[in-house]
Amino acid sequence: MTGDGRPVEEFTAELLAREVFVPLGGVVEIGAVNATGTWRLADVSLGDFLDGRGAEVDVLLAGVRSACAFDSTTMSIAWDLGRLRPHDVTAASLLLWSGGLTGVPAELESPAVVRHMCQVGADLQLTRLLHASVTAAVTARTEAKRGARALAAVLTAACTLSGGPRPSDVLRLWRVARLVHVLRPGLDASDAGRSAFRAYEHVLTATFGD
Prior knowledge:
Helix content: over 70%
Shape: globular
Structural class: mainly alpha
Mean pLDDT: 92
């Protein structure tokens, strides 16, 4: 049991879910900004953006639930975080999603800077989302072929929402930014865990190509 009385496995599921749903919030905010075509924050309406993309959100959440074996309580974290409800999108949040790569220029809200933060942020948050989803699916011991097919739908929907890179681009980023570290010799990852990550990569590569 954890200190607040919850089973350890429940606490772990909550942590895994947050790792998935936090970058999803970044994907949604970035997508709403990209959808304006002006990259002016005054033109962003997250409510309108979400109203028009309910199908993508539904596919994404269904795929996460299937692959990661999250129950209803765990899935509710996606809504509890507030990122899937209408709210203001700020330059500060885009700076966060883009990892602070731009620094804090004097004209942080200028369209050129906002567009650059969206480009970097989409790459970063989609890669985080994919890694967190695969990690949760491996932890849940979801069979790789079934899990990876569900996550392929998740990644496709997330890329559509972001208005950014293609799924194949995110897959390549994930390999070099995250997967190689999981598979690096000398880490504590079990042989079974490494094999599971490799199996997911194999199916995702077959789906999206090299």
